[in-house]
Fold this protein.
Amino acid sequence: MSHEEISITDMVAQLHASGVREGDVLLVHTSFRAVRPVEEGPTGLIEALTRALGPSGTLVMPSWTGDDNTPFDPAATPASPDLGIVAETFRSLPSVRRGDHPFAFAARGPTAAEIIADPLVLPPHQAGSPVGRVLDCDGRILLLGVHHDANTTLHLAEMLAGVPYRVPHHITVLEDGRPKRIDYLETDHCCALFQQAEDWLKRCGMQTDGVVGHAACRLMRSRDLIETVLPELRRDPWVFIHTAESGCEECAQARASVPE
Ligand SMILES: [Zn+2]
């Protein structure tokens, strides 16, 4: 494996070769560990994405908190460590808008305000949430150095399909200046079986594979993802949940949430 630093200019070319177009609304999930080393680090990658999209494009990244017990402050609360250094760097840039609730996304570009403006909905990733707005805008999804287990739009597909499982979670918000716990139910599980979306998309020619920095990337239209996955979920609402025999504890919780 090469450890040669890749320039911002070369990353822009890689993004275009991977199918990213000027003017796209692009939701990016990324792990910088897979992308590096690149010129100017995480900032350089964000710059390359921004240049590849041009002034008419909108860059979107997840930006939720990983802290369920502290009220969310969009200006100060870090992005969840799971989301990585690029998401954390992006939300900190002065020109980037961030939603004002615990399941915030961050966005920059002409469509940014529309994508992050909705109030909190629970479960978090449904119609009228940032992933729903990316779908509404005919946006695309770039998995950069990550797999479909990081593809949050698959939770939107679960909501649209009406999957039966719901696992208890909580968040903390400010109400009248005081922290208030909100308990809710989410379509949660280990997400490993989200990887099946890769085969479903490829079967229909709806995923473009490429390389950006040193990382493999997968690009798809949000609409294609939803239209490809919904029939699979309607055929089997448990298609993303490991069997009881697999020993997966997270999926066991999802299974236990629905009475036999
Ligand atoms: Zn599982």
The radius of gyration is 18 Å. The chain has one domain: 8-256. Residues 8-256 form one domain. The longest helix spans residues 222-235.
